[in-house]
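Consider the following assembly input.
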Amino acid sequence: MRDWAQGALDTATARGAGYADVRVLDACTRTLSTKNGKVGTVSESESLGLGVRVIAEGAWGFAATDQLTREAIDSTAARAVSIARASARVKKKDVVLAPEQKIAAVWRTPIEKDPFAVSLDAMMKLLFRADEEMRRVPRVTLAEASMSFTRLEQLFVSTVGSEIRQTKTYSGAGIVATSFADNEIQKRSYPNSFGGQHATAGYELVERLELVENARRVAEQAVALHQADKCPEGRRTIILDSSQLALQIHESIGHPIELDRVLGTEANFAGMSFLTLDQLGKLRYGSEIVNVVADARLEHGPGLGTFGYDDEGVPAQCIDIIKDGRFVGYLSSRETAPAIGLDRSGGTMRAESWNRIPLIRMTNVSLLPGSWKLADLLADTEDGICFETNRSWSIDDRRYHFQFGTEIAWEIKGGKKARMLKNPSYSGITTEFWNSCDAICNRSHWTLWGTPNCGKGQPMQTMGTGHGAAPARFRNVLVGVAYAQ
Amino acid sequence: MLSEARCREIFETIRRASRADETEVFLLATQAALTRFANNIVHQNVAEEGVNISVRAVVEGRTARATTNKTDVEALRRVAEQAVESARWQPPDPDLLPMPGPQSYRAVDRYSEETARLTPEERAEAVKKVVQRAERSRLTAAGIFSSSATTQALLNSRGLFALHRETKAEFSVTYLDAGSGWAKGNFTTASQLNIEELAARACEKALANREPREIPPGRYTVILEPAAGLDLVGFLFYDFAGTAVLDKRSCFTGLLGKKVFGENISVADDVYHPDQAGPAWDGEGIPRRAVPLVERGVLKDLVYARHTARKMNAQPTGHGMLLPNEWGEAPLNLVFAGGSSSVEDMIRSTPRGVLVTRLWYIREVDPYEKILTGMTRDGTFYVENGKIQYAVRNLRFNQSLKEMLNQVDRLGPPVRAAGEESFEMVVPAMRVQNFRFSEVTRY
């Protein structure tokens, strides 16, 4: 890897690049699924390639190849420089990067059990058992179980002089029971939608999920939802479970704080942000109990946004985003950090693979825990609705107006969970919503969820992000609009 | 690009190394480049080349897949072995069919050498003109201009050989000021992209969208430009899969042969349509058939992979995905029949309504009623007394597609439309009565 990377760096520099970095990435993935007692997908894949990113004549160029001969690597590096020169035809000023130190490092995701050393047989047996448990429940029409594992071995070198080797391992698993009856489809997922839980972890993550033990419960809930009352319409006190709150954080905090969106470079596709630069340090984003960080460090937990160094060679950091309700920080890169007066990148640049450039991506954007026990929070709620497990999600292109639906909800009456509700939804305006937060549960209820399917950029890149959350309560939220007439 | 001879050479190396009863190889070679601009500069400019070699092995009634992008002989042997190993331990699959033998394919011409050779300098010069238009109008421009060339080949040990070459060129632009305007085109040849016309349209919308006013949510007559219509009806595509109906997760479950939409709605899947793209064969190499799915509002047919067809007592239509998979098949070349009303005609005949350029972040709220939610974006206008009156703040909708396609009262000529929520299809502009906007945002 090192010879390939250094060769590309040398060629880019010789061709006139003022800055260059090279990533060589060797990825392997395993995807397994079952459906109604049969094998769904069994797939193993590997992908090895090299990407060269340069600044020449003050503009960006990037080229990538999987032909790792000396000739192809030289040609790819030269192509990156020539593309940069083409970019320079439409520029206003030279790209300037925030300074970064030279780093030589080796970093690995800490794992207990290498998923690629676990037999396919053992993995499929577990999926079949969960699948079978779900199908034991009458009127379950579709039982699905899945696992996925990825290992990325990456070398990053740059003209700064850095040489960083990272091995990142990602694991995920989940189950879904679907019931069709009376022209209605209901489903329940465990432990979350989007393929379940995902983390930078080994197979130990899957073993701890207890998929089989939870299969019957979620299957029974999927069937029971047909008989449940519809979620009412109107303004209510709501409690979000930690997985739904994680997605709420992702959409209404994580995306708007991406500085590339704020500065307009995603305007044609992913959109912009209501968090214009004048809001930094001033906007009351949420109530005083709302504290949010973007933390890529190991000590935050094994989130999908946990790493040693980002794809610009910047060390993982913890950035304050919302402090005591006030908006205090963006996600930044070496190019964008100077726009908000920072002398260093926040270390959030990641690329999907060797053939993509790094973009500002959420790391682990997490709501810090509060002080409530969940039982006390429920007991303290006279009349409300508790939403569980995301089913639909949508937000405008400046991240202001959102609407979420969940798979299930529970009415809360007199401090206790009462009837089950189907087709629940809630909607609102981001800042009004976070300012209505009046209770957050404590660390013992806090989970660092993995969102594996965050899309951004052109060409589109899918990235995993982490979001820690504990159940929280919000007042006076509009519910039931999705199904209103 | 992969030559036919190289495809056959890779396949033979894998076949010889494989201990499988049957072996299938899918090859995908890609050369792609994309110039991205924003704030009136090019800020990203990328190019890639790569190849994927995907092997499916069948061993005693079991099947599995392994994929690599390494092309040396040792890597090819290893991927062949991996597919066999992954297949071996599985329980036999009673639905697994023998691989098909050689097939005949209708020719489709979707490759343009000129598009494949588009240079970063040519893309930059085109972007420069788009930016100059922005500067003349005191706007900023953001967008992309991309081009790609791909070769796909499918070969199996029963002698099947299928090869498809295709190019694509795509341009999209958002002009921004206080408001914004957007346009996009996507074709198999760059010469079909009228960048100047797309830029002019987006620019005009941005200028008209400078001071949007708020209108109350409610039910409106809505004129959906083709991109907006596409991003809604595109959500139906998997519902037409036989497997989706078998699994009871299609919104058409129990409705085959019944009237599902208004009489003015007809939908086919037709890879041979001149405005369509993609190969004329499916994931097993079965030739794609043109399938009439909805005729005058009646659900006439679905699409079927081979194994789904056998289960459902139907004929394979050539829409299967690469095996093994849990999804079965999908129509990838939907063509909606249109009418003769232009968007201007629709505006002129609308007493009170909303013109929608584009929709955004559409998600399924209810899978059977097919309720979708999402936002308008980049040019939404209030229409009254047959004229556009003013731009409006973006609105959230919650609308059942089944209901919507029973409330279409005017259709435009079908065109190849490109949005961001669905893949490209041939759809018309449409006017819809009683479209439900549920809330409004702040801009």
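Residues 4-197 of chain B form a domain with the PmbA/TldD fold fold (CATH 3.30.2290.10). Ask yourself how this observation constrains the way the partners meet.
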